[in-house]
Write a structure and sequence with these properties.
- By secondary structure, the protein is an alpha/beta fold.
- The longest helix is centred in the N-terminal third of the chain and has 18 residues.
- Helix 6 packs antiparallel against helix 15.
- About 55% of the residues are buried.
- About 35% of the residues lie in helices and about 15% in strands.
- Helix 18 links the parallel strand 17 and strand 18.
- This is beta-N-acetylhexosaminidase.
Length: about 525
């Protein structure tokens, strides 16, 4: 059922008594890192990762400074473990898509809501509702549930329902759809190039159906959509964050979204490279956003926003409307009662079972031209594990676990990190090894502006060592589209869609034929 913020006359009366700065505070969501221990009352606060006890204490401390109960929010895109350190970690959302079970993903969403709720969170900036339209998108890729609208609707929708049915507001992002070009909206305004018809059949269908299913919040990205907008006097199309045609006409109007609109981070280059930082904050609110994410709040912020007010760029009526909506939503969610709901902690063993199940069911043999998998690993074999990954030192635990798991089957396991093509050439031509297992690719991170293997590390793919007779099995742990770039050199490739404590064991068992590995691509092709 579609979600609607119910206007509250009582909340409107409260907001009407506030001055400009207090109204502004209520529509801001800074970070705990930026705000520090001197945080004022804000409408919401984003908390970065930490241990459970430290996070709970920090959240409780901030909440105690607020007369109006705040939203407490984080990015729990694929389970709690990335932000709530020490809790269960899960594969990427695209792994959820490959596992292809709405029941399983709902259970993960439910467990995430219960565990995060027990820490004090009541809002989650997920699920990612973007389609993985371009294989080299530096922002979306494995964060998406897939390339096909029906798959994203099914999987992101299940995660959303698991969250919201258990007291956690979900956020579908990034409207009107990231993932269609190779630009990173953290750095510059990215562009969704789809026509009106293509958009309605793809991203538009996803957002429409998730809105119809009850999405409580939408996050617009710093993404232009020329098919539905007009260029400015410079010939530049505006990011959705500050576009009335996209937020008012398309999102509020055509898609009839009546929940909360929270901007993406206002310090991202896709917004503040397009226009002045403070003018952009004002324009986002005037264009339809209810809240600003990650504003840098200091005295200058207030002075500049008051300037925008004086210049007619941000009216008090707009601020009053946005603050009233935020307050009404808090009342609707039960936050204004002053008492926190009892949260039943999820069973940690059950969380582990969910993580192991989705890890196993998402492992995918993307390509196997020579029929290498299953490969008969056994004692007496000589195995070389090669790591060709940017920032390989970030993944030491991963390839240490792979080494350990290979040693369960084989007596000799060597491991090389970024060895270079010449060393690999000689290893492959000499007959020293019975199998070369190659972990390839890198994890995405914001502002890297590239999804592919890159820099000097990519030179490891030179030399033709994969064509010298020694069997080679490639494994991509994070970037799901390695096979697109290396169409000819890679004959056998397995995707794991992330790295959790079960990944290495299940990967090696699958290669050895201990269980049947998935061979169909559901989330992508």
């Amino acid at each position: 059922m579609k979600f609607t913020i119910k206007p509250s006359s009582r909340m409107r009366e409260i907001a009407d008594q506030w001055d400009f700065r207090r109204l502004l505070n209520q529509v801001c969501c800074p970070t705990n890192v930026q705000a520090g221990t001197s945080a004022s009352e804000f409408g919401a606060m984003f908390f970065f990762g930490g241990e459970v006890e430290a996070l709970s204490a920090a959240i409780s401390s901030f909440r105690s400074t607020c007369e109006i109960p705040p939203f407490i929010v984080s990015d729990l895109e694929n389970g709690p473990g990335e932000m709530i350190h020490g809790s269960q970690r899960f594969p990427q959302m695209m792994g959820f898509g490959q596992a292809d079970s709405a029941e399983l993903v709902y259970a993960i969403g439910k467990s995430t809501a219960l565990l995060a709720g027990a820490c004090g969170f009541n809002w989650n900036f997920s699920p990612v509702a973007d389609l993985a339209g371009h294989p080299d998108s530096p922002v979306v890729s494995g964060r998406s549930a897939g390339q096909r609208p029906e798959q994203v609707i099914k999987i992101a929708g299940a995660y959303m329902r698991g969250l919201q049915d258990n007291g956690m507001m979900a956020t579908i992002k990034h409207f009107p759809g990231d993932g269609w070009d190779t630009y990173d909206q953290h750095l510059t305004t990215s562009v969704n190039p789809l026509s009106v018809e293509e958009w309605h059949e793809g991203p538009g269908r996803v957002f429409k159906e998730l809105i119809e299913a009850g999405a409580m919040a939408v996050m617009p990205g710093h993404i232009a959509l020329p098919a539905f907008d007009k260029p400015d006097e410079r010939g530049l199309y505006p990011p959705a964050t500050v576009s009335r045609p996209l937020l008012q006409d398309l999102l509020r109007g055509e898609l009839d979204f009546q929940g909360l609109i929270i901007s993406d981070a206002v310090n991202m280059g896709g917004l503040v490279g397009y226009m002045n930082y403070y003018d952009a904050c004002a324009a986002a609110l005037e264009s339809g956003c209810d809240m600003l994410l990650f504003p840098h709040i200091d005295e200058r912020f207030y002075v500049e926003m008051e300037r925008c007010h004086a210049e007619g760029k941000l009216s008090r009526e707009t601020l009053l409307d946005r603050a009233s909506r935020v307050l009404s939503l808090k009342e609707q969610m039960g936050l204004m009662s002053g008492s926190l709901p009892e949260r039943t902690q999820p069973d940690h063993a059950e969380l582990a079972r969910l993580a192991e199940r989705v890890t196993k069911e998402s492992l995918t043999l993307v390509r196997d031209r020579e029929g290498l998998v299953p490969f008969p690993l056994r004692r007496g074999m000589r195995i070389l594990h090669v790591v060709i990954m940017n920032k390989a030192d970030h993944y030491k635990d991963l390839y240490a676990r792979i080494h350990t798991e290979l040693a369960r089957y084989c007596d000799r396991v060597d491991q090389w990190v970024d060895p270079g093509p010449d060393k690999l050439f000689h290893a492959a031509i000499s007959g020293t090894y019975d199998l070369i297992l190659c972990s390839i690719g890198s994890r995405q991170d914001y502002g890297l502006n590239v999804a592919r293997l890159h820099d000097e590390v990519a030179r490891n793919m030179m030399g033709g060592w994969m064509r010298l007779g020694t069997p080679v099995i490639f494994v991509s742990h994070f970037h799901p589209f390695v096979h697109k770039e290396y169409e000819a050199p890679i004959d056998t490739l397995i995707n794991t869609y992330g790295d959790v404590e079960f990944t290495a064991r299940l990967l090696i068992d699958a290669i050895a034929g201990e269980f049947e590995i998935r061979r169909e691509l559901l989330a992508h092709d």
